[in-house]
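Q: My labmate handed me this sequence with no annotations at all. I'd like to see what the chain might look like in three dimensions before we decide whether it's worth expressing. Could you predict it?
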Amino acid sequence: MEKEKLKGIIEAILFTMGESVSADRLAGVLEIPEEELNFILHEMQVEYLKEDRGICLIELSGAWQICTKIETYDYIRKLVVQPKKRSLTDVMLETLSIIAYKQPVTKQEIEAIRGVKSDFAVNKLIEYGLVCELGRLDTVGRPIVFGTTEDFLRCFGVSSIEDLPDIDEVTRQGFMEEAIEEVGGAVDVEV
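A: Here is what I predict for the chain of 191 residues:
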């Protein structure tokens, strides 16, 4: 099948799905090798960026999705009812960053780092679709482990967890000093 026809089919599939589709699943449907598919997808991604188009093609942990470009948001917002904007509190952001950098992580590990209960924050992050349950540890009590979702990647503009910015040692030390100051004494926490 010619490349332009494949691009049209890929575009139709991704548009229709409305969510990300894994490269291996797309390759299976199109009956082409995954390497060829990835080449076509990257080519499409560049074409969308070059042209004055309203959509873009993004990669999320080996899956692909068609999205509207940020520049079009104001126009789209004028047409549709603006959804309720969910804001993240400082507690939720703190909890989310612990999960993002430590995943897979249990609620007990989150609470050991934060020094307080985290039930509400974790539940809200799950409700917002930024965090999900990844399974259970095979230890006593079988605690649930949590990790981030594709929505997290989308919201924070990264393709994968590996793209999260590194926390340098100076910043890390500053965080530790703030935490120690907040609890008023020495803290023995692995960061």
